[in-house]
Specification:
This protein is an alpha+beta fold. The protein has two domains: 103 residues; 117 residues, Alpha-Beta Plaits. It is 32% helix and 23% strand. The protein contains six helices and ten strands. The strands form two sheets. Strands 1, 2, 3, 4, 5 and 6 form a six-stranded antiparallel sheet that branches. It has a four-stranded antiparallel sheet with strand order 8-9-7-10. The longest helix has 27 residues. The radius of gyration is 23 Å and the shape is elongated. The relative contact order is 0.19. Belongs to the gas vesicle GvpF/GvpL family. It is found in: Gas vesicle.
Length: 280
């Protein structure tokens, strides 16, 4: 039951999982050496990792054609960057897929401190400055994220399906012949809201012990009841997915959309503090 991955701007399934929507196939073979690029000119920043292991990712970056992604290193940290296509990078599908393509490649081998889509710094020297001036905070965040990734879970429902289930379970929710329709609708709305709240809380209670941290984003649209992110140890991914599968199997009232693993956008709140950087 593979998790779905989709393009994300980034700052964060059904029991019948939808098919994965992945970036177009690209070669992940790194270049023989770090690309020789002019030190000046804007750099697109994907995230921060520790300066360890292979940090050349080849031509995967945002732009057309795809740009070379490489590491700018300082004091044990490495910023993964590429030449920026401009000072402002619009959130087009191609750009979002390019950003996702790079973060997925980095995440396979490294703990990643991600930055928001569209983050552009003026030059390589500004990237060095970022690593130096924010070194302590960046290191602390990487320590907290070590060996962890983000998983997402959205739960949706059809109101009428839940109403039917509730009326079957409690005959008192059926409309009385003398009851005004508006009053009956108010009773049903209250019952639906109460049941959905209790079910989502039980779901979170069942999953939270398997995560290091959780974050609940606002639901999107009338059908969504839960829009949650979980910070999970890599070693616990299979256990977490099995628990989601188990909880989803107990209910035919809700639809589950389970995604990831992602870079842990929902659990990072770092202000880069560089005045010329877009998207920070």
């Amino acid at each position: 039951m593979p998790r779905t991955t989709r393009p994300r701007k980034g700052a964060a399934r059904s029991a019948r999982r939808t098919s994965a929507e992945r970036a177009p196939s690209q070669s992940l073979q790194p270049p023989s050496e770090t690309p020789h690029l002019p030190p000046e000119g804007p750099r697109y920043l994907y995230g921060i990792v520790r300066d360890a292991g292979d940090l050349d990712f080849g031509h995967l970056g945002v732009g057309a054609p795809a740009t070379a992604v490489y590491a700018v290193k300082a004091a044990g940290l490495a910023a993964l960057v590429s030449l920026a296509p401009g000072w402002v990078v619009d959130p087009t599908r191609a750009h979002l897929l390019g950003h996702q393509r790079v973060t997925e490649a980095i995440l396979r081998e490294h703990t990643l401190l991600p930055v928001a889509f569209g983050t552009v710094l003026a030059s390589e020297s500004r990237v060095h400055e970022l690593l130096s001036t924010a070194h302590q905070e960046l290191t602390q965040v990487l320590d907290a994220l070590e060996g962890k990734v983000e998983l997402g879970l959205k739960v949706l429902f059809h109101r009428e399906h839940l109403v039917q289930r509730l009326v079957l379970e409690d005959a008192r929710l059926a409309r009385d012949p003398n009851e005004p329709e508006a009053e009956h609708e108010r009773r049903l709305d209250a019952a639906v809201e109460d049941r959905a709240r209790r079910d989502m809380r039980a779901l979170m209670d069942g999953l939270s012990p398997r995560a290091t941290a959780t974050h609940e984003h606002p639901p999107v649209g009338e059908r969504m009841l839960l829009n949650a992110a979980f910070l999970v140890e890599r070693a616990g991914l299979d256990s977490f997915e099995e628990k989601v599968r188990s909880l989803a199997a107990r209910s035919d009232t809700y639809a589950f959309r389970f995604t990831g693993p992602w870079a842990p956008y929902s659990f990072v709140d770092v202000r880069l503090g560089l005045g010329d950087a877009a998207g920070t």
